[in-house]
Amino acid sequence: MNRAMTVITHDDELLTVQEVAAWLKVEPGYVYRLASSGGLLRVYVGRYVRIPAASVRSYIKANTVEAVSPSPVRSARRPSARGRRRLRRAG
Hints:
alpha+beta
């Protein structure tokens, strides 16, 4: 049984699935799905799954979307006479 091993530095913390779920404010099942799909790295410690904190940080950074500045609000104008006629015909 030959599995690829990943070396984790000593200062990188390993988190439980429940801790990651609390951090991301999601259900633990979603964390398992992220780990299965490759969205998060996972480490097996015996039969226990642990997630490196650096993996969670990089997931958050990769999935953060910058807010777009809202476009200026246009005042609601009443349709012109021609527009009102079109609306009457269509309706």
